[in-house]
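Inverse folding, one chain.
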């Protein structure tokens, strides 16, 4: 559907499709997780580093998403963490079949299926579904962000020294050390730091007011495509890779407006651009 026009109903349709498929994939992932926790084997490979893992369940989840998209939205390009792909003209589907794969593997129930519809690289609809809790976050560009039936808005935080801030580490060892230094610099300026291990859920946590801010360098498009839209639609100040040179070319940043400027300045002063 390259070059398709965006009529008013379309983003809602896209959101419904993303949610419906993410729920289905989340069911597959949850079933595999329960089986694994009762002693079942899951095949594991590594990717960019020995610590960067992909399981057979990541691949099965992405295959399911791709098959459903092909049936419901035939011909639209898909960019997925495991199967690759590229942004096309018109709608592109951006898919993380398990965000938080390391958590999944360890049995830690903080992982999600993330699906976004982007047009010209901009997210217009998205869904993040957490298989174990069943929580579903959704958003439509210009239509707000939702956790199930509840409309979300970010926290009213207005002091950086009282802010709870999430962050994440890259899989690359040298980079992790620099990220650790940046975090060490920040930890004395905020209430506390959280590192949950699933970027999409961190962004949804900002949307829900469970975090006042979040930053990470080196995310891939599939990590942020749905979550960043959800955070922005809940009122967060969001900066995507390529949008904030003072934070570094590949920084993702989301924060409640009351602390966004202060957090951004603290990160920039801490050397975020060199991370
Ligand atoms: C990872 C998680 C993690 C973040 C990494 C991501 P994956 O995604 O979102 O929190 O720190 O940068 O790569 O590999 O589990 O899909």
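Residues assigned per position:
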């Amino acid at each position: 559907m390259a070059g398709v026009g965006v009529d008013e109903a379309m983003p809602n349709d896209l959101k419904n499709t993303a949610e419906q498929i993410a729920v289905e994939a989340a069911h597959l992932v949850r079933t595999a997780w329960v089986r694994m926790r009762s002693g079942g084997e899951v095949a594991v490979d590594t990717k960019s580093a020995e610590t960067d893992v992909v399981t057979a369940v990541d691949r099965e989840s992405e295959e399911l998403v791709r098959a459903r998209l092909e049936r419901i939205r035939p011909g639209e390009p898909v960019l997925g963490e495991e199967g690759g792909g590229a942004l096309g003209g018109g709608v592109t589907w951006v898919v993380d079949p398990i965000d938080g794969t390391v958590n999944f593997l360890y049995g830690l129930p903080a992982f999600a299926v993330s699906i976004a519809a982007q047009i010209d690289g901009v997210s217009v609809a998205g869904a993040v579904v957490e298989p174990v809790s069943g929580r579903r976050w959704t958003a439509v560009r210009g239509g707000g962000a939702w956790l199930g039936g509840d409309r979300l808005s970010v926290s009213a935080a207005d002091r950086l020294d009282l802010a709870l801030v999430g962050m994440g580490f890259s899989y690359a060892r040298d980079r992790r050390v620099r990220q650790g230094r940046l975090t060490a610099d920040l930890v004395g300026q905020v209430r506390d730091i959280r590192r949950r291990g699933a970027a999409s859920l961190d962004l949804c946590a900002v949307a829900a007011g469970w975090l006042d801010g979040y930053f990470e360098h080196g995310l891939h498009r599939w990590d942020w495509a749905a979550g960043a839209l959800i955070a922005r639609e809940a009122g967060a100040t969001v900066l995507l890779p390529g949008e904030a040179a003072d934070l570094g070319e590949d920084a993702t940043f989301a924060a409640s407006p009351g602390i966004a400027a202060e957090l951004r300045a603290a990160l920039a002063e801490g050397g975020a651009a060199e991370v």
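Helices lie at 10-37, 56-72, 101-106, 173-187, 199-208, 221-233, 257-269. The chain has two domains: 6-151, 160-274.
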